[in-house]
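User: Is it possible to get a 3D structure for a protein together with its bound compound? The compound here is nicotinamide-adenine-dinucleotide. I've pasted both below.
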Amino acid sequence: MTEFNVIAAGSGNELPKRIFRARHFIDGTWRSSAAGKTVERCSPAHGGVVSRIALGGKAEVDAAIAAARRAFDKDGWPHLPGRERAAILLRVAQFIERDRDRIARMETLESGKPISQAEAEIEGAADLWRYAASLARTLHGDSHNSLGSDMLGLVLKEPVGVVSIITPWNFPFLIVSQKLPFALAAGCTAVVKPSELTPSTTVMLGELLAEAGIPPGVVNIVLGLGHPVGTAMTADARVNMVTFTGSTAVGKSIAATASATLKKVSLELGGKNPQVIFPDADLESAVDAIVFGVYFNAGECCNSGSRLIVHEGIAEEVLSRVVALSRKVPFGDPLDPETRVGAIISSAHHDKIDGYVRQAVGQGARLELGGQTFCVPGLDGQFYQPTVVSGLSADMAIARDEVFGPVLSVLNFRSFDEAIALVNDAEYGLSAGVWSDNVHTCLDFARKARAGTVWTNTWMDGFAELPFGGVRESGLGRELGRYGLEEFLEVKTVTMRVGHTRKPWVNVAPRT
Ligand code: NAD
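Assistant: Yes, that's possible. Here is the predicted structure of the complex:
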């Protein structure tokens, strides 16, 4: 029996004949590495080489930070009118839309994600550049006019300075677009390091920035490994802030390194996000959202709804519906527009996912579906089956750790309080969802769940206007919305006396 809906390699979906050459973008020029090092990236779905990437080191980081420092301190980027910074961001948004297909195809080839999803992400990224442009024009501080007739207070918002931006492989173009346009809108300059596995679309973004007229040094892109490139971007005293998206382990090491020079740090880290289903929920909608939540981006998603917490009265029905729908999700060739779930980023990561499943089964968990590597006809990459695991206890690794694969862990509850206790029994706190037709249940849940985002009767809807980020080990700070701009701003207080009325501290009048 064909257990799953497999999309085999499509005809006409050959890999590009020309390998993309990704180089550093430093001080407005494209450069190879001083040491001449490169690395090749193969498509995780198709197996062939798709890009050749310059591998940078200390020399490139030094040059990039020096250029960003000069652009901030001397060349006037922070002092440009917001209107002029906004004009550049708007041009970038327009160019992203123009080049959507080219960028999306490269995103798919390096990450293994489905092409239709990549296209939607590139469109979403263009929207973020446009939204950030609106913030560049409306950014302002406060005034205090009620401090007394002789005093006026001003609260100025000023850019933080030079920002290091370090991004992961799972949403390369979207995540850099959650940070860079906001930093630029605030008046900061930047050094950007994409993941070594998926750097090419960030390089394409550099091309668009140059075309849009970004002044030299305002945005620099250095390619390479976490160490030495990311570590140097974090340790250098000339950098004022590090904004990082990636694993909690690396986030902690970045916070530790940055503390030596007391840099501002913003961290978007992992999650083990629960969806809680109450008996009065619209089950059809909930089941679709559970399947979407866990398989979207092959589960390689910080917002993956990887923990299903379902009321025991409906657990059997929900589980059988989730398993049935999981079989219908189109898994396979990411270049096919029908595909919903593509390849796993690397064979090492595939093995890590499989390790969690094997360990859980060894500890007595029930495999309801999947749990194995997946062969897609005609493709040479690594895929993992849609997988559902039940019969878990909340202390098992598969129920607590971020598996980062298409693996759903199922737990049950009896009462509202028990559900909340399970939700909050976690190191992470990125997002949580509740499904119920009772608005009181949803509101009570939203207040009690320890998470940066709560979805009620929906999952993973995001908007440029709404802040995003985590609590506890899911991170520090927020992206998107007005708060996403505030991260890149310092606050300066200006206290002014009006008139010549200051009461002297030293009384100089002669004693009588
Ligand atoms: P990762 O932490 O391994 O790497 C992320 C980036 O950091 C890469 O560019 C890497 O080269 C760099 N890096 C590695 N070591 C470094 C160091 N010591 N100093 C500085 N930089 C270093 O993460 P990943 O495997 O690329 O991405 C997956 C992780 O990202 C998951 O944990 C996921 O939850 C998280 N993530 C979080 C969000 C969010 O918004 N909360 C979004 C997407 C991904």
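The longest helix spans residues 115-138. The chain has two domains: 13-269+470-493, 274-456.
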